Amino acid sequence: MDRFEKRAMALALSLVLMFFGLVVYAAKGLQADLPTCLPNARLFDRGRLVEIGPNRYQVDAVAFMWGFDMGTLNQIKLPRGAVVDFYVTSRDVVHGYHIDKTLVNLKAVPGAVTYSRVKFDRAGEYQIICHEYCGLGHQNMAGKVIVE
Amino acid sequence: MKALRLAGYLLSFALGCPAFGQGVPPNLSRVLGTQLPDVKFVDTQGRAFTLSELKGRPVILSPIYAGCPSACIVISRSVNKSLSRLNLSAETYTVLSFSFDPKETVADMKSFQQKHQLNARNWRIACVPDDEALFQLLDAIDFRFTYVSEQVKDHPNLLVFLDSEGVIRHYEFGLEFTPEQLARGLRIARGEYTLWERVSDWIFPIGALGVLTTGAWIMLTGRRRQ
Known about the structure:
The structure holds two protein chains of two kinds.
Chain A: H1 3-29, E1 36-38, E2 48-53, E3 56-64, E4 67-69, E5 75-78, E6 82-90, E7 95-99, E8 105-108, E9 113-120, E10 124-129, E11 142-147
Chain B: H1 2-14, H2 28-31, E1 40-43, E2 48-50, E3 59-64, H3 71-86, E4 94-99, H4 106-115, E5 123-127, H5 131-140, E6 146-147, E7 153-154, E8 158-162, E9 168-173, H6 179-189, H7 195-199, H8 203-225
């Protein structure tokens, strides 16, 4: 076997091992919630923020050209320590829904619902951005979660 | 929007999902083998009890809500029917159905019990009066419901089987639970596993190890030939 080929294989194997280790660490160590597509979820076309329990919230977010409807436009306020279930869909084309400093990294797909749960332990502003090119106004499509 | 909804239904059927609104499934790898918090319940007879008081025999946990228009009724009736068919001795199990909706009361659950004639032996139908404790319990079994309206919540359809020490050992999914499903869950809760149940969790790690070993073997033998 060519020595460069061997090096490439060794590198590939090391990377596979490293990524596998990171996946296990994220799942077991960090208890990370993987973003999920819910093929059997009930569809919705209006955004809202609902308190479902003590410091427990549900956000139904509808992405559209070019903004996020979460009951209020582009912005929601939550108390510190809130555990939030995000359900995301789109009214028109495929958008992205990424909340900075969290593991919420979802696609907003028309006709489907994606889901992620996050706990906001620290007060501050968390930017929400569309990270899926969705047309001429894509660069302006942003919102925020304000944790007080 | 109607066209999108229709497309969603068609996609759901194509993927083999018989019904909408089953909520977010639990992450079993995270919850199996964990001890449940010692939550306080109040049952429809008005008796207060904690989970630790149920230790000593397997427990079947059934999260439901009294206002449910469909699934919880089917689940509870099927459990009622299957328990009667199994005819187990009273010392071998306890069933605990509890409301996951923090707004429901013991009176709501009592009315649900009477309306659907849920009267199998060793069956306690209850509420968790403290909302914080309720969500601790729901988190412990990774049960996530989706608020649709005041009346309707989407949720996974499942039963959780605890061993005699209150540790989660098994989940069964479905709407109508057969006597075989209950018997299997109780068997696993007693620690009686089949060979397949013992090894199935290790299939992926063994496969991954096999791939890595094969890769290493190719590299090593390649080096020797050179």
